[in-house]
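Q: Convert this sequence to structure tokens.
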Amino acid sequence: MITSRRLGYGVCVLYELATRKEGYHSARDIADGYRVPEAFVRKILLDLRRAGLVTAQKGRTGGYRLAHPPKAIKLGQLVKALEPETPRLVYGRQRGGGYVPGEDCPVKGFWKGIEETFTRALAESTLADVVDRSRTPSRKRAPKAKAKGTAARGRKKTRK
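A:
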């Protein structure tokens, strides 16, 4: 339904920070849990920090955490932080382009109303609503499986 991966994963990132124990959490842990590149999650977190939704701390025990309680974070703020334009609904398969009603389409008003309802609900919902409607507490998802013979990050593979 949402046409942007950034917005979809942005909700997931905020959800993770809201449901994990207190303290700072690394972008790597969040990225590994969703099996997306760490750099992608870092870019999302940077935009969220600029918008004042998360705070960051450098260092070994650093990472990211929510800047406000989940009840105080509206998803409309997330949309403004991550999307240059208002998200649009895709009617049908996104990969195939979906259905875009033309100006002369007799049911365009119906689809426009659905889209406005979606946009309004997204703007009015809070992060607490996401947490309440999702599974809680957050379980750490299994990191993606490493290929045989690959060394752990940051360590050189040693010969025997």
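The longest helix spans residues 108-124.
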